[in-house]
Design brief:
With 485 residues, the chain is α+β, with helices and mostly antiparallel strands. The protein has helices spanning 3-12, 23-29, 114-125, 181-191, 229-238, 244-264, 272-292, 300-312, 353-356, 363-378, 385-403, 411-432, 438-447, and strands at 46-53, 62-70, 73-82, 93-96, 106-109, 128-130, 133-137, 149-152, 158-163, 167-172, 174-175, 202-206, 214-221, 227-228, 268-270, 318-320, 332-334, 340-342. It has 13 helices and 18 strands. The chain has a seven-stranded antiparallel β-sheet. Strands 1, 2, 3, 4, 5 and 11 form a six-stranded antiparallel β-sheet that branches. The chain is globular and about 70 Å long.
């Protein structure tokens, strides 16, 4: 049994109670949610892992917290209970209970109810246990009362609430045993004095018998007035403006975060056998994607060469550490003073939590940003390859300014991770956004070509900033989009 499957079995052992009268409506409602991973499949097993009333019984509205085992995955639900819903809350309706303790009442998504969302913040302001839930916070931070909540739109794998433009609460939807990296890593960075990541001020977990605590939500400062890195890049492309200074600064910020994580948490060196297993995993993902995405098959042999080269090149160990794990421009924010912050350290939500907490080469994050520059450039017409190339170079130079190590000096490792990322993108686009499959396919064609011998790059000149590079004007894209989540 895999580690992830073992963790799921521990969660569901001896917890086989169904959600009772709520089950029919939840079976219908869950597959319609953006954060539900089982879209397109009929729900089989639906069992309650834990249930807790967050308000005294009989309160109006009521607030029910559920952890549900849905075919082996554990989901967090916050359900509001009212006799009837106002027009403003009507879109949040899940259904009406026909029997049981909530008979005749409306059951709805609680995070859209300002009163219940405000109550959740109050729980975070006053640490303590409530049934299986435990609320905790940084004792050195005073969280004001009465901050007005509003949901953050546009998320997919989680749900977030903004409180008074001062704090943002991320509510994890699919959860598992063990501390979530989006709590663990920002706390470690804060303790290390790294200001590039908002430090958590409060959080809540579920404590269940026989398992590690499950991280359920994290409250952090809301960086108001910042530019989303993806949207900022699109705007610069739209008006033909240079982005190399911003890319250079982002490279430095990323390097600072990596350096702080390496100092705060354990690091390892992947030996030849571990590196060979890493390359084998990339090869297996390529083979699985080629079976699913027919357009990739003509390039499979060339792409496999990147992974074969990685497996053959390692006489010494590859440094590995804790990293962001899902870094792209949409996970970055640029402040009004030009400084960059990194957010959303959860990693790729589809990967098991234990995998996301393992040390990995830092170049994985770097490859994600480099691919994001390409995504931005290809989202415009005409395609701006020079803009992407200049940003890639500037980012790497900024990274080297801080660490002394230019990612391009290890082209075998960088190419392997860029190739693995492009293969992941091809599979994702083929499944969810086929109109955008051409973006990763262009990278796949490039990465499958034989590589020229690499020349060692000169070290960065201290104090040097890459000069601005003129780029042509680009019309507004047909459909601006965020990079892959």
């Amino acid at each position: 049994m895999s580690e992830a499957a073992s963790a799921r079995s521990r969660l569901t052992a001896d917890r086989t109670t169904g959600p009772g009268p709520l089950e029919p409506m939840l079976r219908t409602w869950l597959p319609t949610q953006r954060w539900f991973a089982g879209k397109g499949r009929t729900i089989g097993r639906l069992r309650t892992v834990s249930a807790a009333e967050l308000l005294p019984p009989g309160s109006t509205p009521g607030l029910l917290h559920l952890l549900l085992d849905v075919d082996g995955d554990c989901y967090q639900l916050l359900l509001g209970i009212r006799p009837a819903l106002s027009p403003a809350l009507a879109p949040a309706l899940i259904g009406h209970a026909e029997s049981g303790p909530y008979a005749g009442r409306a059951v709805y998504e609680a995070l859209g109810d300002p009163r219940l969302a405000a109550m959740l913040l109050e729980r975070l302001r006053t640490p303590g246990a409530l049934g299986p839930l435990r609320f905790d916070r940084d004792p050195g931070v005073l969280i004001p009362a009465g901050l007005a909540p509003r949901p953050l739109s546009g998320e997919q794998t989680n749900s977030s609430l903004i409180y008074g433009d001062a704090y943002i609460l991320k509510v994890f939807r699919r959860v598992g045993p063990g501390v979530n990296p989006d709590l663990e890593l920002p706390r470690a960075l804060a303790a290390a004095g790294c200001a590039r990541v908002p430090a958590p001020v409060a959080w809540y977990e579920a404590e269940l018998p026989g398992t590690e605590p499950l991280t359920l939500g994290v409250l952090q400062p809301y960086l108001r007035g910042c530019d989303d890195g993806w949207q900022l890049a699109l705007r610069r492309l739209d008006c033909g403006a240079d982005f190399t200074a911003e890319a250079h600064a982002l490279g430095r910020a990323t390097a600072e975060v990596h350096s702080a994580l390496a100092g705060a948490l354990p690091t390892v060196a992947l030996g030849p056998e571990q590196t060979a297993r890493l390359a084998a995993g990339m090869t297996a993902r390529l083979a699985a994607t080629a079976r699913e995405v027919s357009g990739l098959r003509p390039f499979e042999a060339g792409l496999r060469g990147a992974f074969d080269a990685l497996a053959a090149s390692r006489g010494a160990g590859v440094p590995a550490q804790r990293i962001h794990g899902d870094l792209h421009l949409g996970q970055t924010l640029r402040g009004r003073d030009g400084s960059w912050s990194l957010i959303d350290f959860e990693g790729e939500p589809a990967r098991p939590l234990a995998d996301r907490r393992r040390p990995e080469p830092a170049v994985r994050d770097i490859a994600g940003i480099l691919r994001s520059f390409d995504y931005a450039a290809r989202s415009h017409r005409p395609f701006a390859p020079a803009w992407a190339d200049d940003c890639r170079a500037a980012f790497c130079e900024g990274y080297a300014r801080t660490t002394g190590l230019d990612p391009r000096e290890d082209p075998v490792l960088l190419r392997a991770y860029e190739t693995d990322k492009a293969v992941y993108e091809a599979r994702y686009e083929a499944r969810h956004r086929p109109d955008w499959l051409h973006v990763p396919m262009a990278a796949i064609r490039r990465l499958s070509e034989p590589q020229r011998p690499a020349h060692r790059l000169p070290p960065p000149v201290p104090g040097a900033v890459p000069p601005p590079v003129a780029t042509p004007s680009h019309p507004r894209p047909k459909s601006p989009r965020r990079p892959l989540a």
